[in-house]
User: What shape does this take?
Amino acid sequence: MSSNRLLIIDDEPEVAAVIGRVARGSGYDTIVTTDIDDFLNRVRTWQPTVIALDLGMPDLDGLQVLGLLADEGCAARILIVSGRDHDAMSNAVALGLQRGLLMAGILQKPLRLEELRIAFREIFEEAGLISKSDLAEALHAGQFTLEYQPKVDIQTLRPIGVEALARWHHPTRGPIGPDTFIPLLEQSNVILDFTRSMFDMAVAQARAWQTQGLPLQTAVNISGRCWGAFDVAELVVDSCAAHQVDPSLLVLELTETVAMVNEPRTLATMKRLAQMGVGLSLDDFGTGYSSLSQLHKLPFSEIKIDRSFVADCDRNDESRIIIESVTDMAHALGQKVVAEGIESDHVLKHLARLRCDVAQGYYFGRPMPAREISQWAHHWTETWCSAEA
Ligand code: C2E
Ligand code: CA
Ligand code: CA
Assistant: This one.
């Protein structure tokens, strides 16, 4: 069953047909009905994600239908369609909201195709629904770029590296965040080409900084799907050769779910990367289930403590104890500890006392376009790093 389901209740077949056509073009499955019992039955069993409700049906009061939907605890987004005046439609929306329904907007008859398209696009966005072909097209059109967030040595505060973070600049929708599009990419194979493309972009950038006399270790997030789908080590070899970059200038960040699956291929790839000198970083540590005792089996060079522990380490004993024990263990294994999500000087000092090695967070700098990094590094070093350090 598709995750986008539109149920239309309307007594005019032509109107229902137009709505259905536009919705299908936006990736919806659609069902049309004119009968209230059938409608309510579909609401329960088919669980539409969007409902287009005609307010002006001859034998049916639209406001009453809204009441019935509220009684059902309906979670669909409701689009009001009607030929009535705008006030009547606004009142219907207000009533729906009052009854706890999710109202998606109003469409005035006669329907204009363009308005309909915009309405579905908006609902689509609101629900975070973006189609596979949108993603492939965006990648093809070069709409994905990278920003870089600085990482500094926690003792000397010197800039030592950056993390590359993907950004989507949609031509009409504006910026869309990675927390929205990465999970969508991961549902399709587009994530594979996306990862190759972002990785190559980051390697080219690492080379550019090195040429400018700024050798920043550049970290790239490699999604779980990729490790089983293609040879990540091969990607690194090819990209480093193409851009003449030493693999030791690169770090791959992966989450524990990837690392902990006992997939021999992933482990072999990680070992090969480690031998090449590529850094391997265990991202979001603490949010999953990996036990400390498992970690020594994997060739990580650093552990990145999730920002949820970092943020409250100055006032939450549990977070502090977790950071302390991870740091002890990591150091015993020759691994570095990175604290991410540092937003204050106060938290930074705590983490330095807890013997973390590397710091990252808004306190030092937000993710920024590549061209701003060298200026940031210069300014930061002048301000915070003593000449002899
Ligand atoms: P992440 O790998 O944990 O990246 C760190 C996230 O924390 C980034 O969010 C960054 O902007 C944010 N952050 C950094 N410092 C602070 C701070 O001091 N306070 C707070 N509140 N947040 C901070 P962003 O850029 O929105 O990325 C979100 C997630 O999307 C990333 O989490 C990563 O899992 C994923 N992601 C981003 N780019 C890529 C990519 O190219 N490939 C893959 N596979 N995933 C990516
Ligand atoms: Ca990361
Ligand atoms: Ca992280």
